Amino acid sequence: MLWHLCHVSLVHQTQFFLLFRGDPADKIYMEVELKRLTWLEQHLFDIGNASPALLGDDPNSYVASSIKALKQEREHLAKRVSTKLTPEEREIYYIKWEIPPEVKQKRRLQLVNKLWADPYNMDHIRESAEIKAKLVDFCESGEENATREML
Length: 151
Prior knowledge:
Layout: H1 2-5, H2 10-19, H3 27-49, H4 52-55, H5 61-84, H6 87-96, H7 107-114, H8 122-135, H9 144-150
């Protein structure tokens, strides 16, 4: 939920979710991520309540730029749907995620927009992460430890 409130990159969410599988050593990463997101949420709240004289003309520019970046990320991922998923996979996802065939040119974007949309449904989150991992060629083998250290 904090990822959604703080407009965190969808790729970051996916990498984070797929890397950690319940190992007790993962606890430190979870704590750091929670602290980071809690700080970011409070910071965004404070910016929203700050005087425009302190922040310039647009105190919401931080939030606006994060939202814009997420929109661009979704558009980029939508372009990759055609190249990274087979036609059969795409059709299965469209049906499963209730994307009507009438709007063919926007189906890819609709699919990407539905990813990570339900933060309370663990099956939805898991499938969102798996689809997004396919779209960005995120691999769980070999470099897993290096990627963990980067987080």
